[in-house]
Amino acid sequence: MEISFTGKTAVVTGGSYGIGRAMAAALAACGARVYIFDVEQTPLDFKASIVACDVTSRHSLRAAFDVSGPPDVVMINAGTGIVKPLAETDRAVWDKTIALNLTAAFETLQEASARMKPKGGAIVLTASTNSYDGEENLIAYNATKSGVLGLVHTAANELGPFGIRVNAVNPGLIRTRLTKGSFDNPAVLKDYFRAIPMGRGGEAAEVAKAAVFLASDWASYITGATLLVDGGQMCCKFGPWRDEDATFESDHWQRR
Ligand SMILES: NC(=O)c1ccc[n+]([C@@H]2O[C@H](COP(=O)([O-])OP(=O)(O)OC[C@H]3O[C@@H](n4cnc5c(N)ncnc54)[C@H](O)[C@@H]3O)[C@@H](O)[C@H]2O)c1
Question: What pTM value is reported for the model?
């Protein structure tokens, strides 16, 4: 059995770039009619419609869902991270992060599920490994990504009776615009990836495949779940890579 979304409508928020773009491409490749809700327009090399939408505005979200029509699959993915120590995280940084990563995710969930109830479907939220840990200088981000798990659990509970499954992918460090600062700095990557059993960062397409699986019939009995896509980062405390028996080249640890 192949994963197929033929005849299905899929919405991806934040799908113009990064992980969302890979999700949109993967859904399109599986036959879905894809609508990207994004503040940015960009040329696409796959079939999808970009609907101008600021997900932090309920009005804008409603107008976008009016364009897509009732969806079968929704990927609630738009998000950002602002790097600031606790002491320097002012109210503006806090509010901006909460507005996009948590409040907009909640409102997208509410608007989407209201339209999905008659026929059922699947929702996948993009959480993070930071839903579970306290990576420094990301207090607002980490709080939102922990909060996303609360959305997943509660929505899975309330929407199960309507045939709507709600799950999350929890990416580790993935190469996107958001993480360009890290990926442009081999010294940072070398240290970071010491603690990742697979010895490297992730690609957006690798997160997209996990999200598509969760949205598909292959996951028909999975709801309220979180799926780490992190190369094993969260399963180990210190990681397996040492200079004595491994080398770091081309952004990748390899055994000698
Ligand atoms: N890259 C990583 O390492 C990583 C790790 C864990 C979780 N995540 C999560 O993945 C999601 C996507 O991140 P990414 O790395 O692809 O970032 P990205 O910056 O490459 O993409 C984010 C997308 O969201 C869109 N967007 C921003 N504000 C918006 C708004 N108000 N309304 C609609 N769209 C908006 C952007 O235009 C862009 O297309 C985020 O929720 C992020 O927290 C990323």
Answer: 0.98
Q: Which tens digit of pLDDT belongs to each residue from 210-256? A: 999 999 999 999 999 999 999 999 999 899 999 999 999 999 999 99
List the domain range (segments joined by +) for residue 105: 9-174+201-233
Q: What are phi and psi of 222, to 5 degrees?
A: -110, 115
124 C-beta closer than 6 A to ligand 1 = no
pLDDT in tens, 42-93: 999 999 999 999 999 999 999 999 999 999 999 999 999 999 999 999 999 9
Total structural domains in the chain? Answer: 1
192 classed as catalytic: no
Ligand 1 centroid from CA 149, angstroms: 17
Ligand 1 atom nearest the C-alpha of 40 is: 37
Q: How far apart are CA 226 and CA 130, in angstroms?
A: 12
What is the domain-level CATH number for residue 156?
A: 3.40.50.720
Distance 80 CA to ligand 1 centre (A): 5
Contact 10, 65 (CB under 8 A): no
Q: Dump pLDDT digits (tens) for 149-205.
A: 999 999 999 999 999 999 999 999 999 999 999 999 999 999 999 999 999 999 999
Distance CA 224, CA 152 (A): 6
Instruction: Classify residue 66: in a domain, yes or no.
Output: yes
Neighbour-count burial for 41-61, b at 16+ CB within 10 Å, e otherwise: eeebeeebebbebebbeeebb
Mutate which of 12, 80, 151 for ligand 1? The one with the most ligand atoms within 8 Å of its CB, which is 80
Residue 176 in contact with ligand 1 by CB distance below 6 A: yes
Measuring from atom 30 of ligand 1, which residue has the nearest CA? 54
